[in-house]
Amino acid sequence: MMKYNLSVLQSPSVMRIHFLLFALLFLFLMPVPGNGGIINMLQKSYCKIRKGRCALLGCLPKEEQIGSCSVSGRKCCRKKK
């Protein structure tokens, strides 16, 4: 049987590396202010499911707004029924 030396895994330098990796992972996954990331992606896909399109400024005259595509204010538009 192979025995593992647990004292190596609990040394201060290894613990610092684990803490550093956790901090970097947390910063990488944290959303950037003004950029919704995952929220924007979900809203865009929900707009496409509802047969809409994402408009940058506003809907065209023959379209109606059915939601939003991003946190920054893009609108989800589809043709009026």
Could you characterize the architecture of this molecule?
Helices cover 42% and strands 17% of the residues. It contains three helices and three strands. The chain has a three-stranded antiparallel beta sheet with strand order 1-3-2, covered by helices on one side. The chain is rod-shaped. With 81 residues, the protein is of the alpha+beta class.
Per-chain topology:
Layout: H1 6-9, H2 12-29, H3 38-49, E1 53-55, E2 63-68, E3 75-79
Antiparallel strand pairs: 1-3, 2-3
Main location: secreted
Protein name: Defensin beta 103A
Pfam families: Defensin_beta (PF00711)
Could you list some keywords that capture this structure?
81 residues; three-stranded antiparallel sheet; 42% helix
From the spread of the alpha carbons, the general shape counts as: rod-shaped
The chain-level mean pLDDT equals 79
SS summary, helix count? 3
Low-confidence stretches: none
Give the strand content. Answer: 15-25%
Secondary structure: helix percent: 40-55%
Radius of gyration: 23 Å
- SSE run: HHHEEE
Largest sheet: 3 strands, antiparallel
Number of strands: 3
Structural class: alpha+beta
Strand neighbour order, sheet with most strands:
1-3-2
Distance between the termini: 72 Å
